[in-house]
Amino acid sequence: MFDQYTFNVALLSIFGKDEVLYREDLKRCYYILEKGYNSMPVNLPGTLFHKSMKARKELSQILARILSERRQNGSSHNDLLGSFMGDKEELTDEQIADNIIGVIFAARDTTASVMSWILKYLAENPNVLEAVTVSTYTDTYLSSFGNIKNREVAVS
């Protein structure tokens, strides 16, 4: 559940509104790559490693297509990919692809893990859950009136 959510958030952060156009292809390739990531590195047809290497190559091709389209359009994007493209060190397309894939791995796994631990902690500590609930409700209520700056929350 969380890994799917965090994957979509990672894509949105990386590609901005363009992620919708490539989400399914990126997802398909990424999950194949992930399955073979820790497999025996035997690059023979039919092995997980071979499939993951093919998926990695396809991911690079998708990213190259996105980069090419953005360069042709000439518009700037306020997302991670746009930041990599505007880097003054002028990264190669392959370097950009490597960075993007690394960010997807990191964002998906760590965020999903942290969210799971937070829920576990809240489930095991009802007083903290109540404080968070009250705080969230109060923040929402007060922010609608613009009176959130001077409020203090005590967690017991």
In short:
The chain contains 6 helices and no strands. With about 160 residues, the protein is an all-alpha fold.
Class per helix and strand makeup = mainly alpha
Number of strands: 0
Structurally, how many domains make up the residues? 2
Number of helices: 6
H/E element sequence: HHHHHH
Largest beta sheet, briefly?
Answer: none
CA-to-CA gap between the ends?
A: 30 Å
Rg (C-alpha, Å): 21 Å
Shape: flat
Mean pLDDT: 82
Question: What would your notes on this structure say?
Answer:
It is a single chain. The protein has 156 residues and is mostly helical. The protein has two domains: 123 residues, no CATH class; 31 residues, no CATH class. Helices cover 74% and strands 0% of the residues. It contains six helices and no strands. Helix 1 packs antiparallel against helix 5. 13% of the residues are buried. The model has no long low-confidence stretch (mean pLDDT 82).
Spell out the blueprint of helices and strands.
Layout: H1 2-15, H2 19-37, H3 48-73, H4 80-85, H5 93-124, H6 126-143
Helix pairs in contact: 1-2, 1-5, 2-3, 3-5
